[in-house]
Specification:
The protein is of the alpha/beta class. It has 44 helices and 15 strands. It is elongated and about 130 Å long.
Length: 927
């Protein structure tokens, strides 16, 4: 329905206000026409109904003609005030299209729309008078509702007395006046209102007051505490510049009856709760109560609640809980309980029905509350980077944060995106408008952030809120918290905390420790700093490292028990069994921590723990790679062994360092440390260690393409391993010998040592070295152009690698399959396997293997005619070689690039790449 501009007002004297002024309506008849049409705005009113309402039961014969005449004048009056077309002729009647104040009142119950008696200035009959009575009833009902919600206001009694005078037999109005007088302490006056009502009803209607009013009279006589119901409005003011939490607010859209807002100290639980309570306050018209439970016992909280609901102190019963529930019954009240410590403190305050809302903030998740009631928990996390930036910008101003965008981002990081820390930092900057944000960041970097994050005159600092949470901990949880503060990683597993002592569940419930994933936990950076200052560490560092040694030793026994230089007593408290994949999965989750833990041991001066932990992790890095981290681990271990004067340990960790250096393509450095280790093992008479080093030195020579020296080293390794009675060592040297023959381009000589090595590894059930040997056999047969057995060997190697969860060998086997399939002119299958190999190499962070696989993948794409993809992968391969240099492999990339450019007809580029390849091939050392 189209509404014209302007408004028709009938809640008082009838008038029409248009865009160009007030319509001039002459006489009661015109006002009556406007009024009755407005009562049916947007709908046609039949002429006979109009005649009835305007002239009653005895209209003149000229009524219809007179009606048309009056309508014409009204239409002109409406047009003159800017409302042409508002009054339309319809079949059999007329229709008014306009905004009408009575319709607005139906929607809003806004009493300010009333200006006096409805339809004043009209003369109506029949149904028109009934409409006037209806509007009067609507108004008085709205007034009853309005004052029923405002009995505590100063002018309530005066207004209600005026209304009762006008409507002396209306029981609801009399009841409201009785309540208002009673709340004001005028009990006798309240009883007198009832007496007058009863007399008036008897005199005029021959009736008595209804049961509800009579019950109110009795309650006033008895001074019933239930009568002392007020409408509290106790919510604190909103925090300024509230930011984020959109998802959390969305969770609460349906108003669950009990909400627990939990989170770490300083995360903004109270701020969030007050913000949400303010947003939904209008949905709880009977009031909002706020209580700080940190300073109240449950009994005191109940008493405070009753006071807030209007019950005088002298009317609070000995057991206030039943009265509390009775006062809330049938009401819609929001109750915010702040800083709750225990579920039992809340139980007496849970409303008896679900029309009310109980909103709780607590550092504890209050899980015990959920065993009795349906609880919706909102766990507040840290702000996102964007939200943290928005909060700082809101306080400091956009121009200031934009001017120092990088420093603003750094400030958010140093505050750990913790809302309290961000607000304190912003407050410090706000009081010094000329101070640079970067200066505060520098102060946080150079000083204790817990000291910096405070503001003069405000005792709510980051340190104090953490301390308040710490004070509630049991002694066991406090001790565990102190030790976990020293953990150097980003997260830790549950079994580590459990091994250090009881208290993890308590720390999680207090939000001093957060669960970051299945079975893993973490401390916020600022909480970790607080933990380190929270008490004496005692032997915590030793116990922390002892747990890592226990785990590493048990893992090594599963992965490769040949690494037996360090022995430890067995443990029945392990997070894994004898399954290799299970062990690797556990260590994969810990991988980012391992270097940090070894650094921690080194900085603590715990030399034995430093080198032993690095040593016990050897088998894990053999299976998984991550050799850059392994280099640093071994450096710390070598320093620790030297500090202890333990030559055997030093030699072993130099050997490990050499392997890691070689795997990161730092071959020359690897050769130096391996020779240092060899000298130490010879001095110690350690035959097995010496033999292993001959093997490793041979591998380094082979990578440098110094094949003659490599063969000598392997021969020495076989002799010393044989003298030491180490059959597996001999077989490993044979496998390496076969591998070197393949690299030398003499695959026909590789078969004999490789098959002998394979027989030994199978006899000894060493599946890892069996897989390595199968791959080398695959390489040998591929070089011999005997591709069918090559595919079988690579396939067997892939199967074993996956069974033992050795991803480095898995990558090599996939690459071998891909290269062989490419030789068999099946580039699609080759691309699939090479793509899978590339994914594994990147997961391992193995730059050397990644670069080689990228080149092989480009070869497959060239065969498929996908030249742009080949170009992209060759470009990536050259870039990868800057991090993992290998002149021979780099020459192969340029050779393939030359092939690509030649196919594209770009001969100048092709020649340039060929020249690069020739130069690199020439510079490679050859045996």
């Amino acid at each position: 329905m189209r509404r014209t501009d302007g408004e028709v007002r009938i809640l008082g004297p009838v008038e029409v206000c248009g865009p160009q002024g007030t319509a001039v309506l002459t006489g009661a008849r015109q006002r009556s026409i406007v009024a009755v049409l407005a009562l049916n705005a947007g709908m046609p009113v039949a002429i006979n109904r109009l005649v009835d309402v305007l002239w009653g039961d005895d209209p003149p014969r000229t009524a219809v003609r007179s009606l048309h005449s009056h309508v014409a004048r009204v239409r002109q009056a409406l047009a003159d005030c800017g409302m042409p077309g508002a009054l339309m002729t319809k079949p059999g009647g007329y229709q008014l299209d306009a905004n009408v104040d009575a319709a607005a009142f139906d929607r809003t119950r806004d009493l300010s729309l009333w200006r006096g008696e409805p339809l004043a200035g009209t003369e109506l009959f029949g149904w028109g008078r009934a409409e006037v009575d209806r509007l009067r009833e609507q108004r008085i009902t709205a007034l009853e509702t309005f004052w029923g919600e405002r009995l505590e206001q100063r002018d309530a009694i005066e207004e209600l007395e005026r209304l009762v005078v006008g409507h002396p037999t209306r029981e609801r109005l009399a009841g409201l006046l009785m309540r208002a007088l009673h709340h004001d302490g005028r009990h006798a006056d309240a009883l007198d209102v009832f007496r007058r009502l009863r007399q008036r009803l008897a005199d005029e209607l021959g009736a008595d007051p209804g049961p509800e009013t009579s019950a109110l009279h009795t309650a006033i006589l008895r001074r019933d505490p239930l009568l002392h119901s007020a409408k509290p409005a106790q919510l604190p003011a909103r925090a300024g510049h509230f930011t984020g939490r959109t998802a959390e607010f969305a969770e609460l859209e349906n108003l669950p009856p009990i909400v627990v807002v939990s989170g770490v100290a300083g995360v903004g639980k109270t701020t969030f709760a007050v913000e949400w309570a303010r947003r939904v306050a209008d949905r709880f018209p009977d009031g909002q109560v706020f209580l700080d439970l940190q300073r109240l016992t449950p009994a005191q909280a109940l008493t405070e609640m009753l006071h807030g609901l209007g019950v005088p102190a002298d009317r609070v019963p000995a057991d206030p809980a039943p009265l509390y529930r009775s006062l809330l019954h049938g009401k819609r009240i929001l109750i915010l309980l702040d800083d709750v410590r225990r579920a039992r403190d809340v139980l007496p305050l849970v409303p008896g029905d679900q029309g009310n809302l109980l909103l709780i903030t607590s550092r504890d998740a209050l899980s015990a509350l959920g065993t009795r009631h349906a609880v919706h928990t909102v766990s507040l996390g840290l702000l996102s980077e964007t939200e943290a930036h928005d909060l700082l910008t809101g306080i400091l101003g956009e121009s200031r944060t934009n001017a120092e965008a990088a420093a603003t981002a750094d400030l958010a990081v140093h505050c750990g995106r913790l809302p309290l820390a961000l607000r304190i930092a912003a407050a410090r900057l706000a009081i010094r408008p000329s101070r640079r944000i970067a200066d505060l960041v520098r102060e946080l970097t150079r000083n204790d952030p817990l000291d910096v994050l405070s503001v003069d005159g405000d005792d709510r600092t980051v340190r104090t809120v953490f301390a308040s949470a710490h004070r509630t901990l049991s002694p066991q949880a406090a001790r565990l918290f102190r030790v976990l503060g020293e953990h150097p990683g980003a997260s830790f597993p549950a079994d580590l905390a459990d091994a250090l002592g009881p208290g993890l569940d308590e720390l999680v419930a207090s939000h001093l420790v957060s669960e970051t994933g299945t079975g893993r936990y973490a401390l916020h950076d600022l909480i970790r700093l607080f933990a380190r200052q929270s008490g004496d560490l005692g032997d915590g560092a030793e116990r922390l490292l002892d747990r890592y040694l226990t785990i590493a030793h048990a893992a090594g026994q599963v992965l490769n028990p040949r690494h037996d230089l360090v022995s430890r007593p067995p443990s029945d408290d392990l997070p894994f069994g004898d399954d290799r994949a299970e062990v690797l999965a556990y260590l994969d989750a810990e991988r980012d921590n391992l270097l940090h833990v070894i650094r921690f041991a080194a900085t603590q001066g715990l030399h034995r723990e430093t080198w032993q932990l690095a040593y016990l992790l050897t088998s894990y890095f053999e299976a998984r790679g991550n050799w850059a981290a392994r280099v640093e681990q071994c450096e710390h271990a070598v320093d620790a062994a030297r500090a202890l004067g333990d030559q055997r340990a030093e030699a072993e960790m130099l050997r490990g360092q050499g392997i890691a250096l070689q795997m990161t393509s730092r071959i020359a450095e690897a050769m130096i440390v391996q020779r240092q280790a060899l000298q130490l093992t010879r001095e110690a008479g350690d035959l097995r260690g010496e033999a292993r080093l001959h093997n490793n030195i041979g591998n380094a020579h082979s990578e440098l393409r110094a094949f003659g020296e490599a063969l000598k080293s392997y021969q020495a390794a076989m002799e010393v391993h044989g003298a030491a009675g180490d059959d597996v060592g001999v077989a490993l040297a044979r496998r390496n010998l076969g591998y070197t023959y393949v690299r030398m381009g003499r695959p026909e000589q590789a078969a004999e040592p490789l098959f002998k090595a394979l027989d030994t590894f199978r006899a000894k059930e060493n599946r890892r070295l069996e897989a390595a040997t199968l791959m080398t056999l695959g390489d040998a047969f591929h070089r011999l152009a005997d591709h069918a057995p090559a595919l079988l060997y690579f396939g067997d190697a892939l199967k074993i690698s996956r069974e033992i969860a050795d991803r480095r060998f898995e990558a090599d086997a996939l690459t071998g399959l891909g290269v062989t399939q490419l030789a068999l002119e099946d580039p699609a299958a080759a691309r699939a396997n090479l793509t899978a190999a590339l994914t594994v190499c990147r997961d391992l962070g193995d730059g050397h293997r990644e670069a080689s696989t990228l080149r092989d993948l480009a070869e497959a794409e060239l065969a498929l005619g996908e030249r742009e993809s080949a170009r992209d992968h060759l470009t990536e391969a050259l870039h990868a070689r800057t991090q993992a240099p290998d002149e021979f492999e780099q020459a192969l990339v340029h050779r393939t690039f030359a092939d690509l450019e030649g196919r594209n007809g770009r001969w100048t580029e092709a020649v340039r790449h060929w020249a690069q390849a020739v130069r690199l091939f020439t510079s490679c050392r050859r045996s």
